[in-house]
Amino acid sequence: MNHVWQWRRAAFVALVCCTVLSLAWSLARAEVAATATAPAAKLVIKKAVYGDLPDGKAIDVTEKVAVMVKEGALSVDATNENFTDPAEGIAKKLKVDYTFDGAAKSKTVDEGQTLTISDKGE
Fold first, then answer.
1. Does residue 106 lie in a domain region?
2. Selection from 102, 111, 53 nearest residue 82 by Cα
3. Which residue among 1, 60, 84, 116 is least crowded, i.e. fewest CB within 10 A of its CB?
4. Digit-coded pLDDT (tens) for 47-85
5. What's the domain range around 5?
6. Omega cis (within 30) before 54
7. Cβ(104)–Cβ(117) under 8 Å?
8. Domains in the chain, number
9. Residue 85 burial (CB < 10 Å; 0-12/13-18/19+)?
10. Residue 114 · residue 65 · CB < 8 Å
11. Is 70 exceeded by the pLDDT of residue 45?
C-alpha cells in the first residue's frame, strides 16, 4: 500500500511540474508575440491653438488638427486657409501640445510654415 501512495504522489508532482512548465512556456510565447506585434508609437494631440500667440486673439483648433494625424505622424500648414483668421493683420502662430508614447511635448511654428511631427515624435 505504501508503494501505491508513493507512486501517486510522484505522479501528482510530475503533473504539477508539467502544468507549471506548460504555463511558463505559453507565457513566454505570448510575450514574444506581443513584442513582435507591438503597436506603433502613439501620437495624441492634446491642444492646438492658432492665432496671435501667446497672449493675443487665437482659436482652438485641437479637433481639426487631431483628425490630420495619419499613421502616427502629423504635417499641417499654419495658414488662414486651414484655420480662418482670428487676428487680421497680425502675424500668427500654430502651437500644438501633444503626447508621444505618453511623453508630453509641444511644437510651435509661424504662420505660413508647416508644423510636422514624425512617426518618431519629433
1. yes
2. 111
3. 1
4. 999 999 999 999 999 999 999 999 989 999 999 999 999
5. 1-38
6. yes
7. no
8. 2
9. middle
10. no
11. yes
**Cα–Cα distance list, 51 to 5, 7, 57, 60, 106 (Å):** 83, 81, 6, 9, 16
Cα separation, 70 vs 96, in Å, equals 16
pTM: 0.67
Q: Is there a contact between 94 and 48 (Cβ–Cβ < 8 Å)?
A: yes
Q: How far is CA 28 from the centre of its chain?
A: 25
Shared-domain flag, residues 7 and 57? no
Measured CA to CA, the distance from residue 49 to residue 60 in angstroms comes to 5
Q: What are phi and psi of 106, to 5 degrees?
A: -150, 145
Indicate whether 33 and 48 sit together in one domain: no
**For residue 102, is pLDDT > 90?**
yes
